[in-house]
Prior knowledge:
Nucleotidyltransferase, domain 5; 5-stranded mixed β-sheet; 5-stranded antiparallel β-sheet
Amino acid sequence: MARRTFDVIDVCEIFTHWHAGRSKNEVAGSLGLARNTVRKYVAAAEAAGMVPGGPPVSQERWAELVREWFPELADTRLRQVTWPAIEVHRDYIVAQLAAGVTMATIYQRLRDERGLAASVASLRRYVAANLPEEARRSQVTVLRLVPAEPGQEAQIDYGQLGRWTDPRSGRRHTVQAFAMVLCCSRMLFVRPVIAMDQRAWTECHVAAMEFFGGVPARLVPDNLKTGVDRPGLYDPKINRSYAELAAHYGCLADPARSRKPRDKAQVERPMPYIRDSFWRGREFTSVAQMQADAERWCTEVAGQRACRPLDGAAPAAVFAAAEKDHLRPLPPSPFVLAEWSRCKVGPDIHLLTELAKMFPQLTHCFTDRCAMVAVRDRGRGCDTGPGRAGRARCGLAAGDWQRAGAVPAHRPGRSRSSGGVGVVRESAGCRPVGGHAAVLRHGPAAVVPVPVGGRG
């Protein structure tokens, strides 16, 4: 820690507290000083016959006494007796500062390699007084961002807008803004949401791709759980549903580093602008109206603003002229979300997950085994995985699996497993409920979720 340099005002503050009747320990604790430092300066006043609690002393009088007792505080040249020795090494100090070397290391090298007898505090004062620009330049890092290529990158993040009361139900919600920014043109897409689950995350991506009319080559999201299961510098684990979305659109999901907001600065910076320009002072009757107004605001307001990184050009104009044609085309088929869940089939033949509503009971399954189950859409079916040969669609007839050699034939009401695949025949315990009857539309059998861990 660098040694503190005192001036006349600092010492006057010590005397003011001491003269008001506070002890030296209290003065040291209040001003954040060492007790020996307080004793050093107060000793001069005690030697002059002053005692705490005497007649009031003005600040001007204290300043006169300090200059009289400690002339080196008033004239800093009296403390510059070592500066001529430091001046000899001026060129060396300048070169070291230009290379980014810290003051502590420069002092160490001067002392050990060049025989400097001054203190590190004297070196710091010399540099601050004689080389202010060099010292400041060594502490500033200039970031020169590489211009983004058209259609290559989009940065994604959530930002909190505020609280909103639903006029129909009277409930208050915290509204978040999903924001996607194309880094080349700075074209912005914003979608307010009141839930940050996997479905909302996916729907926002789909709406953003349709808004831009194309797909960027690289997506840079934050490390939230709906996008990244486990952050990592070299090998982040992408959320399974999000990885399927990226594969569907043919783009790369490359999350930013954890706790490194500069990795997605283009989307971090507009968040205050979104809150101020779009959200504050407005009333909304529904989430649908909120989202429609946000899309219109992105086109008519945010897209027409003068953007400083674009030298004052409007993002919408730059997007139409330079980036729109470089985006990849949208896929012909819409994306169907797969909500993957890691569940466990226990001895009571129940799936211990929220998917129990879909499969209330399985007649005989993998005891103490874990499984990955995905619900793609209500009435569209269910996927199981991950198997080495690919996913298996629920709803295949039992005979198809038996002919393929996956499982041997067995009696109705029972099930067996072989090679990580099991079959359950329809019975009173495994009949699907409600709108999920389409799961078994191909026959009286359903594929048991493929085990991915556990015992057995």
